[in-house]
Design brief:
The chain has helices at residues 56-70, 75-81, 153-160, 173-190, 203-207, 275-278; strands at residues 3-6, 17-20, 34-38, 48-55, 95-102, 105-112, 118-125, 141-149, 164-166, 218-220, 234-240, 245-251, 261-267. By secondary structure, the chain is an alpha+beta fold. The strands form four sheets. It has a four-stranded antiparallel sheet with strand order 10-13-12-11, with helices on one face. A hairpin with a 4-residue loop joins β11 (234-240) and β12 (245-251). The longest helix has 18 residues, at 173-190. The radius of gyration is 20 Å and the shape is globular. The termini are close together. Residues 1-13 and 292-296 have low confidence and may be disordered.
């Protein structure tokens, strides 16, 4: 387990970007009742919209999945960092619970966000089943990375006169992986790496929750931690010319040196993979997968 201690600062407003969609729903191919699709959810700071790209039925499915993540494990960090919210974070608690141990006796205290040792956990997934013949179904988790925002935990313990503490945790790993795959897929459509008219990538069924195979496509990348100053999140699309795979690279809170996730979107021979995109040297990047949680 690794810990990074970072300041809790407000996120600046990011510029809004709009890209014209393909003219059909990118998930089911429907050509009616369109709505725009935020590549990263609006409630997690997303400002890039893919216009007229999702039918209302598919939009309801992806939105529900995003809300489970945004109002669950990601909610405290969204509030603490002042990330945009359509509801202005209405209904979010103003104080957060913390269990502390004083001389061996545990008790619960409530602290405002400004005084809370906010721990943000990102799961480390096993390599995708696409490249691992032992995969059967579901999502395999190898560990997690912990990032600390706001007051240092040791300072909070000293102020409370406590020796140990424990914060309640919320996990929804499958929903988080589905959201990650959705970001990568929508980004690939937006940059012209996927041609929806030529075929429907099977990762879509996992994004929509129709099959329990999200771990077949999503894994944690093995690469040095990358800090991207002034970048809230990073969502890029690449082609690995050796493995001959199209994949998305997703890094949440990229300015904090968080781990990056990889989402396999297709192989060179798949009809929806745009060959002209794959041929661009600027798009080339190796995708190597983390086998274990790294403490570094």
């Amino acid at each position: 387990m690794a810990e990074r201690v970072l300041p809790a600062v407000a996120i600046p407003q990011l510029p809004q970007v709009r890209t014209q969609g393909p003219g059909v729903c990118i998930y089911c191919g429907s050509s009616k009742e369109f709505t725009s699709e935020h590549i990263v959810a609006f409630g997690f700071g997303g400002r890039h919209e893919l216009l007229e790209s999702s039918c209302r039925d598919c939009a309801r499915i992806t939105s529900k999945c995003e809300l489970r993540v945004l109002r669950g494990p990601f909610r405290p960090i969204r509030v603490a960092l002042g990330i945009q919210s359509r509801s202005k974070h209405r209904g979010a608690p103003t104080q957060l619970p913390l269990w502390v141990s004083r001389e061996g006796a545990w008790s619960s205290v409530s602290l405002p966000h400004s005084e809370y040792p906010l721990l943000f956990e990102l799961l480390v997934y096993s390599p995708p089943g696409f490249v691992d013949a032992t995969y059967v179904s579901g999502l395999r988790i190898r560990g997690h990375q912990v990032f600390s925002f706001g007051p240092r935990p040791v300072e909070v313990l000293r102020r409370l006169g406590a020796q140990q503490m424990s914060a309640p945790r919320q996990y929804d790993p499958v929903s988080q992986a589905r959201v990650t795959a959705k970001i990568a897929f929508a980004a690939a459509v937006a940059v012209g790496a996927i041609n929806i008219a030529a075929g429907r990538p099977p990762v879509v069924d996992s994004i929509l929750g129709k099959v329990d195979k999200i771990g077949h496509w999503v894994g944690t990348l093995a690469e040095p931690r990358t800090h991207l100053p002034d970048a809230l999140h990073a969502a890029t699309v690449h082609y690995d010319p050796v493995a001959k795979l199209l994949f998305g690279r997703i890094q949440y809170l990229a300015d904090s040196g968080t781990p990056a996730y990889g989402v396999i979107l297709g192989a060179a021979e798949d009809p929806w993979v745009v060959t002209s995109f794959a041929a661009q040297p600027a798009a080339h990047r190796a995708c190597t997968w983390a086998d274990t949680a790294s403490p570094g």
